[in-house]
Amino acid sequence: MLTAASAKMTMGPVEFFRAKLEYEITPSGLKKLLETSPNNVCVVDVRAAEAFDAGHIPEARNIPLETLASSFYSLPKDKMLVTCCADLVCGLSTQASLELAQKGFQVQHLIGGFAEWSRKGFPIETATSPAPSQAW
After folding, report:
1. How do residues 80-101 score in pLDDT, each as one tens digit?
2. Considering the domain boundaries, does residue 13 fall inside one?
């Protein structure tokens, strides 16, 4: 497994940070992507169901990390998957992104997770919100 430390040893800083940025998306970047190309992106929230139900990015799909492997078949290979977890220190979305990338999915992870999305005042759905209109 390639860690940040081993990546730094095998590539220079420019290559490392270029590669890192390619697989990360900010909340503002995701919001723009959802507004301009909603059919090209699928948000995968890997938090526990209780946290997801309390609030999540609109149209996101909840797949807790421990069930991700059994859900590969239901995820679209033709869309960018954006993984989301709780916050900046939560490593679940990075782990999910690695697992998805190893299975051939296009993937990015949301920097700062749901906490940063929420902090920016972007739209949020809850378990009592209307059901998503977009089919997966």
Report:
1. 999 999 998 888 999 999 999 9
2. no
- Domain span holding position 28: 23-119
Cβ atoms of 83 and 110 within 8 Å: the answer is yes
CATH number of the CATH domain containing 63: 3.40.250.10
Question: For residue 86, which of 109, 59, 67 has the smallest C-alpha distance?
Answer: 109
Sole residue written with tokens 């998306």: 25
Instruction: Tell me phi and psi for residue 41, to 5 degrees.
Output: -140, 145
Using DSSP, how many helices (H) and how many strands (E) does the chain show?
A: 6, 5
Does any domain span residue 47?
A: yes
Q: 8-61 pLDDT, tens per residue?
A: 567 788 888 888 888 999 999 999 999 999 999 999 999 999 999 999 999 999
Structural domains of the chain, count: 1
Backbone angles phi, psi at 20, to 5 degrees: -60, -45
User: Among all residues, which ones are annotated catalytic?
Assistant: 85
